[in-house]
């Protein structure tokens, strides 16, 4: 039980640090908070609402991983390094793919709610 408690504290600390240091994380947490009531208004079913919120939470998860990669890369060197730049670009691409996926889920839910599907 102690290990679970310590892991929870570490997770909270990581999220708090990311929130303080990264604008993108703050924006995605704000989007996640907004997604809860919006999902219940838009979704045709309770399960669809959960899926919509989870899609936004997934974007936040990928953003947190991208932030961790960027912080680690910056810790290794602040000099311009082509390989590190590519790694950072791949992390950014992962966030972009997650955003596209979430957007597709939300668009489908809106279309479904409007009765086109």
Automatic annotation (TrEMBL):
Keywords: ATP-binding, Cell inner membrane, Cell membrane, Kinase, Lipid biosynthesis, Lipid metabolism, Magnesium, Membrane, Metal-binding, Nucleotide-binding, Phospholipid biosynthesis, Phospholipid metabolism, Transferase, Transmembrane, Transmembrane helix. GO terms for cellular component: plasma membrane. ATP binds at residues 3, 22, 70, 88-89. One of its GO terms (molecular function) is ATP binding. The chain crosses the membrane at residues 29-46, 52-69, 90-111. Substrate binds at residues 3, 24-28, 63, 92. This is Diacylglycerol kinase. InterPro entries: DAGK, DAGK_prok, DAGK_sf. Its main location: membrane. Its cofactor is Mg(2+). It is found in: Cell inner membrane. Its EC number is 2.7.1.107. Catalyzes the ATP-dependent phosphorylation of sn-l,2-diacylglycerol (DAG) to phosphatidic acid. Involved in the recycling of diacylglycerol produced as a by-product during membrane-derived oligosaccharide (MDO) biosynthesis. GO terms for biological process: phosphatidic acid biosynthetic process. It comes from the Bacteria. Belongs to the bacterial diacylglycerol kinase family. Mn(2+), Zn(2+), Cd(2+) and Co(2+) support activity to lesser extents. The active site is at residue 63. A divalent metal cation binds at residues 22, 70. It is a multi-pass membrane protein. PANTHER family: DIACYLGLYCEROL KINASE (PTHR34299:SF1). It is an enzyme of class 2 (transferase). It catalyses: a 1,2-diacyl-sn-glycerol + ATP = a 1,2-diacyl-sn-glycero-3-phosphate + ADP + H(+).
């Amino acid at each position: 039980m102690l290990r679970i408690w310590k892991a929870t504290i570490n997770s909270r600390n990581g999220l708090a640090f990311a929130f303080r240091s990264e604008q993108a994380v703050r924006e995605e947490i704000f989007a996640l908070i907004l997604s809860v009531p919006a999902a219940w208004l838009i979704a045709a079913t309770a399960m669809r609402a959960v899926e919509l919120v989870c899609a936004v939470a997934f974007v936040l998860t990928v953003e947190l991983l991208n932030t961790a990669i960027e912080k680690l890369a910056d810790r290794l060197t602040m000099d311009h390094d082509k390989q590190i730049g590519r790694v950072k670009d791949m992390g950014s691409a992962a966030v972009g793919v997650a955003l596209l996926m979430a957007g597709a889920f939300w668009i489908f839910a809106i279309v479904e709610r409007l009765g086109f599907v």
